[in-house]
Amino acid sequence: MMSPFLFWIFAILMLVFGAAVIINRNPVASALSLVVSFFGLAALFLSLDAYFIGVIQVLVYAGAIMVLFLFIIMLLDLRAEELRKINWIASAGGIAVALALMFQIFSVVEKFPAAKQSFPPLAKPAPDDVRQIGLLLFNNYTLPFQIIGIVILVATVGVIILSRRETR
Amino acid sequence: MSVRPGPQPLNLFVSYLDLLKLASPEAIIVLIALAVLTIGLTGDRSRTFPGIVAVVGIVIAIWTTMRLPQHANLFGGMLVISPLNSLFKIVCLALALATVPLAVSEKSMRNPGEYLAMLLLGTVGLLLLVGSEELLMIFIGLEVLGLSLYVMAAFDKTDARSAEAGLKYFLFGSTASAFTLFGISLVYGISGTTALNVIGLKLAMGSIPPLFAVGIVMTLIGFAFKIAAAPFHLWAPDVYQGAPIPSAAFIASGSKVAAFVVLGKIVLVGFAPAHGNAAWHSMLPGWSPILAALAALSILLGNFVALAQTNVRRLLAYSAVAHAGYTLLGLVAGGREGFSATLFYTTIYALTLIGAFAVVGIVKRETGGDDFQNFAGLASRSPFSAACMSVFMLSLAGLPPLAGFFGKFYLFSAAFRAGGNHGLLWLVVVALFGSFVSLYYYLNVLKAIFVDKNASETRHSSPGTHRFVANATIAVLAASVVLLGVLPDALAEAIAKSVP
């Protein structure tokens, strides 16, 4: 368990850079903000003793996926995004809907007795959580694990179909 | 109620051979999809060969589904084999089977191998959805299905409207699945399990926590999107109009049937204790008043907006919104009778709609459009298509002796009897009113076909074999709509017997 002080630092880091992803007009700066946000999320996972997910978060998301993102952004040379005007009315509407939803969820959660209790201490982490996850994946969750493979196949084939140039 | 989630590696191990045996329909369809994809790679542009392979594969899958054991339950509900699930796996496979000829007879279709592969992978999503009683697998099934449908909607790259349809479907669909996932995570967080029957048992033990209510509402949003119930229908008109015709037919039929089967299981098994009451004088919070409100709104909005349409595909889209409303009536009524009525109606509706889209496809190939004016004079050009289209339209309108009449009859009588003291009468009245309104625009289509003068000259006629394939499909679908109208018990009894 990390101290609440560190929790707040990482949570705020995550939220600020998460907002920066949307607010930044420069796509490269957006992508880099997303990397920082992912690091904050990884730190939060570590603080919950979920070491495996924390490490994967850094390796896969912050590492591999974001590097691909940056490559693509640089290849595409997105100038138009910087010049695009912000539609203030639409964004105000979007923010209003998001706030209304947040308010609703908070007011419901308020009525939930468990929300007012302090967070119970987690069980002692298993010393080898990678092993535990592996056992779960290949026992209880074999079927979804394999079907995720089909999801990835659909996505791969679909991306190739949609991105190929076709002449009339 | 607050159970700390933490699945332990249980001794649930099933041998992979057993798993393969029980999941054989899914496995066969995946293999056939890969085979069709490979055939497409060879550069052979013929549409017939991949189509034949797909048809043979689906028929084999139907045969293996029939030979599955009566009951099996793997991994706590992830793959459940029961008479109901097997029956609807067969229905979904049959709907895919009826969609393949549409794709084959589509003349503008390029890369048919890839298209059929996406169709088959989408069918795998349908099978997984229908065969699962566990939220994690249901979500993965939704994703397999959704991803394939987005690609199928945007498949025609020579048409800007197809791209628009794909993009709209993708944006709405991914937002809706985000909501569903959030809802599922809340349900999991509170009940500590993702198996529907265990969730139902846990809920029945105590009062329903408010956070669970948030979870229910969010989960329902995703399904309301899939079945195109108002106000989550905004994607439907553009997708039905813009997507390639086989894609639109598949989105309107297979995806809807699977969504109704799963939605029924989720609300009637998983969320059963949070039923609430939708009766007029004794409304109680729960999922049934939410579904009742969605149903009433869909029926009114769908039918009235459909009145103003001049494009047959947009008309079918708004009528689909209205039909989603009718079909929800059965779930609101609940119980065995209501669920059977919903399942019967959604099956009939899917068959009818594939047929209607097939006729639209023929008209579009011959006249280059699908507005009312393109349908003018269809009766003299092609009496056969005209006759079949009138069967489909009258069945959608719910006129006896066609299948749509009995579907509506079962639904309305289930809703009328449910809820104690005819509490759901208000919903039945709304639905009957909607049905009368709908008669106008369905007959308008028939007026264009039979009465209006032929304004546009026939431009091209399809090549012989493809025309024959399309006509044969339409004939089979029209015959089944008529037969199920004359002998509704053939299907209704099979469904009623299999509903637990």
Task: Explain the overall architecture.
The complex is a heterodimer of chains A (168) and B (500). With 168 residues, chain A is mostly helical. Chain A has two domains: 4-79 and 87-122, NADH-ubiquinone/plastoquinone oxidoreductase chain 6, subunit NuoJ (Four Helix Bundle (Hemerythrin (Met), subunit A), Up-down Bundle), CATH 1.20.120.1200; 126-168. Helix content of chain A is 77%, strand content 0%. Chain A has eight helices and no strands. Chain A has helices at 4-23, 27-47, 51-76, 80-83, 88-110, 113-116, 129-138, 142-163. The model of chain A has no long low-confidence stretch (mean pLDDT 83). A two-stranded antiparallel sheet of chain B has the order 1-2. The two termini of chain B are 28 Å apart. The radius of gyration of chain B is 22 Å and the shape is globular. Chain B has a domain at 275-500. Chains A and B meet through helix 5, helix 6, helix 7 and helix 8 of A and helix 5, helix 6 and helix 9 of B.
Multimeric organization? heterodimer
Helix content of chain B: over 70%
What is the rounded distance between the termini of chain B?
28 Å
User: Could you name the CATH homologous superfamily of the largest domain in chain A?
Assistant: NADH-ubiquinone/plastoquinone oxidoreductase chain 6, subunit NuoJ
* Low-pLDDT sequence parts of chain B: 1-5
Proportion of helical residues of chain A: over 70%
Distance between the termini of chain A: 61 Å
CATH class of the largest domain in chain A: Mainly Alpha
DSSP strand count of chain A:
0
Give the number of helices of chain B: 22
- Weakly predicted, low-confidence segments of chain A: none
The computed structural class of chain A is mainly alpha
Q: Rg of chain B from C-alpha positions?
A: 22 Å
Biggest interface found:
A-B, 32 and 48 residues
Largest sheet of chain A: none
Major sheet attributes of chain B: 2 strands, antiparallel
Topology of chain B as a string of helices (H) and strands (E) = HHHEEHHHHHHHHHHHHHHHHHHH
Question: What is the mean pLDDT of chain A?
Answer: 83
Which class of secondary structure composition applies to the elements of chain B? mainly alpha
For the record, the count of structural domains of chain A works out to 2
Order of adjacent strands in the largest pleated sheet of chain B: 1-2
